[in-house]
Amino acid sequence: MALFAQIPSEDDTRVFEIKSPVTLESIGQFQAATDDEVRAAVDRARKAQREWATRSFAERAEVMWRLVDQFVERQDDIVELVIKETGKTLNEAITMEVMAPCMQISHYAKRAKDYLATTTKRPKGIMRFSKKVTLHYQPLGVVGLITPWNGPVALAANPLAQALMAGNAVIHKPSEVTPFSAVLLRELCDAAGLPKDLYQVVQGDGATGAALIDAGIDKVSFTGSVATGRKVGAACGRNLIPVTLELGGKDAMIVCADADLDRAADGAVRGSFFNTGHYCCGTERVYVPEAIYEPFVEKVVEMTKPLTQATTGASDIGAVFWDKQMDIIEDHMRDAREKGASVLVGGERNRSLSGYYFPATVVTDVDHTMDLMRKETFGPIVAIQKVRDEEEAMELANDSEYGLSGNVWTTDLDKGAALGERMVTGSVSVNDIAVTYGVPEAPFGGVKESGVGQVNGEVGIRGYCHVHPVIVDTTKKAQGGYPYTEESAEGMRKMVKTVFGNKLLRRLFV
Ligand code: NAD
């Protein structure tokens, strides 16, 4: 049964119905915005943004602090809606969709003024005697925010807070599978006193997202799959607008022979099962040296078996958020089994529950011929491959088209950091599951097919700005230069030779 379907219509309107993955019952319908409506939203946003850009950081922050108040006051409503829409567990709904946005919004309310402070300094080298450079962080204008379904509030609220604190307006195209979370987020913004039209939601599917990119916006902040990311990148290229692409992953976990096995097994379980495995930085592949393989697998199995699954949300593993993802998980498991994988726990859809549920699963005897080790599965599966040693683990970890994040487990922290540096990924954690998204000082983004650009913290919020340098000449005389003559050309030639031909002078000059 499809959880997301278009309702037949006699005119041009496109109406969709959403069913909950928990009950498989309808939770509502929504109408997709037309291209004209999207363009009108952008026009309104542009007007609202002009006034917002004149407000001080303190004034913008005031609204953000009130938004945090809204999250606190309405946390039960957020949790209830997110669980209905996604089927994630109660604990995950609170930590990911309430606590994380509170932390993110607070961070930018407090720090944006430092990240985006106007700075004036003398340039380095010879220029210091004649120039002064001032860097202004100017808002870009109207930002298009296109988001996925796995963190419907968190993955919108975080870029939203950054874009707004930087002085932009935002038009949000949420996932067609989780449209109502975005409606609630807008309600919270309205109640917080965010000026009208500064944050608007346009509902719809991929066609609506494509229309938004073509509607005259100034930047796209995209989070989603690699396949869509390619289309979004191409459309932004056509429109000559900047874009960050936060895409899929296939994170590897390297367990060193000296790792604390209890801690590492706990990391494998948390990293693979968090958010039903619907986590871009979820652990999708675990490489374990043969010396510790048996006890490690035993511990993972021991920790997995008692995990519960229920439709109430009060359990350890939530629902698979929509039917398409269930198909992918089941396909990867079928392929792995056919190629010789052993399923030690779980492995089959949990049909004892009415909704879309796949249980916590542990798979061994896997290798890189299997989709389970090569393609993004996005399900609650710990897939463990036995390797000779850490070197083979590193080779396999880097043998992937993806490069989002990864983690290394060892009691030797220096070795962990050194191994981490060799992982070809956007970021790495040592002795923890991927935590980069939650640490603003660490820019977050993927390499290879996992994305383009980085988000969060100073780097991220500056991405919602044009850095506008104003260079003032502090001398009091005309630069001169004309007319060009043979002599002036000869003078330049000599200067190149004198300055850059001298090992000491060329260092002082720049
Ligand atoms: P998706 O690519 O199917 O959809 C993402 C969004 O793009 C949706 O809102 C969708 O309607 C829209 N869209 C689809 N076609 C479009 C087009 N042609 N132009 C503009 N917009 C279009 O992704 P999904 O299935 O919703 O999300 C799951 C994926 O997101 C996974 O691959 C996951 O790893 C990834 N993800 C990445 C991060 C990260 O930060 N790197 C975070 C969360 C999820």
Give your account of this protein's structure:
The protein has 510 residues and is an alpha/beta fold. Helices cover 42% and strands 18% of the residues. A seven-stranded mixed sheet has the order 13-14-15-12-11-16-17, with helices on both faces. Strand 9, helix 8 and strand 10 form a beta-alpha-beta unit. Helix 3 crosses helix 4 and helix 4 packs parallel to helix 5. It is globular and about 85 Å long. The site of nicotinamide-adenine-dinucleotide (NAD) has 29 residues, from helix 7 and helix 8. The site of nicotinamide-adenine-dinucleotide has 29 residues, from helix 7 and helix 8.
Question: Would you summarize the structure shown here?
Answer:
This protein is α/β, with parallel strands linked by helices. It has helices at residues 35-52, 57-73, 75-86, 90-115, 154-165, 179-191, 206-213, 226-239, 261-273, 290-304, 323-338, 371-374, 390-398, 413-422, 457-462, 486-500, 505-509, and strands at residues 4-7, 15-19, 26-31, 119-121, 131-139, 142-146, 169-173, 199-201, 219-223, 243-246, 251-255, 283-289, 342-345, 361-364, 381-387, 406-409, 429-430, 451-452, 465-473. It starts with a strand and ends with a helix.
Provide the low-confidence segments as ranges.
Answer: none
Number of strands: 19
Strand line-up of the largest beta sheet: 13-14-15-12-11-16-17
Shape: globular
Tally of contiguous helical segments: 17
